[in-house]
């Protein structure tokens, strides 16, 4: 009987060693999984970063292409405007610049601005004595005692004047081109042929002749 118990115990001992602890493998797998977590997260971060960089590069490429297309469109538009302007009956003056004198056509200042734009021109900017004298002399030759709108206007208020030419450059209140008796609070600027070669005030809503100028990029 004793030897039966001995054989039974021996059988149990031998087979118990062959049975693996189920928690052993599980723990090993968990440990390996935990070890792999930082690597996996790092790989995903790198993949996301690469994807974002690629998308950002694509956006930059699109932006660059839009800039190029806008430049081409502006160049084509400028060519069209210049072709239109050159088809207008322009007069070249002693200062080397080209002008259009609207006589006998008249309009208020906004209409004068539009009339120039429709011809591919802009209301003239007489910023120095040479240009002012050249335009004044020609205007006097065309018609005496006529008012001609120019491209400057007060964009401020009557209390705080801010005269600017069509290109945004300032026409200062103390500019020597102004006539001494000019009432600058009237808003717009003109010259009067056969009067004096100085800038004078003008009411913007009153119809007058106007003088247009060929844009510098069209020469």
Q: How much helix is in the residues? A: 40-55%
**Which spans have pLDDT < 50 for at least 5 consecutive residues?**
18-24
Give helix and strand order, one letter per element, not per position. Answer: HHEEHEHEEEEE
**End-to-end CA span:** 126 Å
Class by alpha and beta content: alpha+beta
Global outline: elongated
Count every helix, treating DSSP H or I runs of 4 or more residues as helices. 4
Number of DSSP-assigned strands:
8
Quote the beta fraction.
15-25%
Radius of gyration: 42 Å
What profile does the largest beta sheet have?
Answer: 8 strands, mixed
Average pLDDT reading: 83
Features:
single chain; 219 residues; alpha+beta; eight-stranded mixed β-sheet; 8 strands; 15% strand
Mind explaining what this structure looks like?
The protein has 219 residues and is an alpha+beta fold. The protein has helices at residues 2-18, 22-86, 109-117, 129-142; strands at 91-92, 98-101, 122-123, 147-154, 163-164, 187-192, 200-203, 209-213. Strands 1, 2, 3, 4, 5, 6, 7 and 8 form an eight-stranded mixed beta sheet that branches. A hairpin with a 5-residue loop joins β1 and β2. The longest helix is centred in the N-terminal third of the chain and has 65 residues, at 22-86. It is elongated, with a radius of gyration of 42 Å. The chain starts with a helix and ends in a 6-residue tail after the last strand. Residues 18-24 have low confidence and may be disordered.
């Amino acid at each position: 009987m004793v030897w039966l118990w001995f054989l039974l115990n021996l059988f149990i001992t031998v087979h118990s060693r062959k049975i693996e602890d189920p928690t052993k493998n599980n723990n090993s797998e968990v440990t390996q999984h935990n070890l792999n977590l930082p690597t996996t997260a790092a790989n995903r971060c790198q993949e996301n970063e690469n994807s974002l960089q690629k998308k950002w590069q694509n956006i930059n490429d699109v932006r660059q292409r839009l800039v190029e297309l806008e430049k081409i469109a502006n160049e084509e538009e400028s060519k069209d405007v210049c072709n239109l302007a050159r088809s207008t009956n322009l007069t070249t003056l002693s200062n080397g610049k080209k002008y259009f004198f609207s006589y006998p056509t008249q309009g208020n200042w906004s209409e004068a601005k539009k009339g120039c734009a429709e011809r591919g021109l802009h209301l003239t900017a007489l910023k120095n004595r040479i240009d002012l004298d050249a335009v004044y002399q020609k205007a006097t030759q065309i018609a005496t005692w006529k008012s001609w709108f120019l491209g400057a206007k007060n964009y401020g208020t009557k209390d705080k004047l801010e005269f600017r030419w069509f290109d945004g450059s300032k026409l200062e209140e103390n500019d020597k081109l102004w006539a001494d008796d000019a009432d600058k609070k009237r808003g717009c600027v003109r010259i009067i042929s056969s009067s004096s070669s100085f800038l004078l005030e003008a009411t913007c809503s009153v119809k007058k002749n106007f003088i247009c100028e060929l844009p510098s990029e069209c020469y």
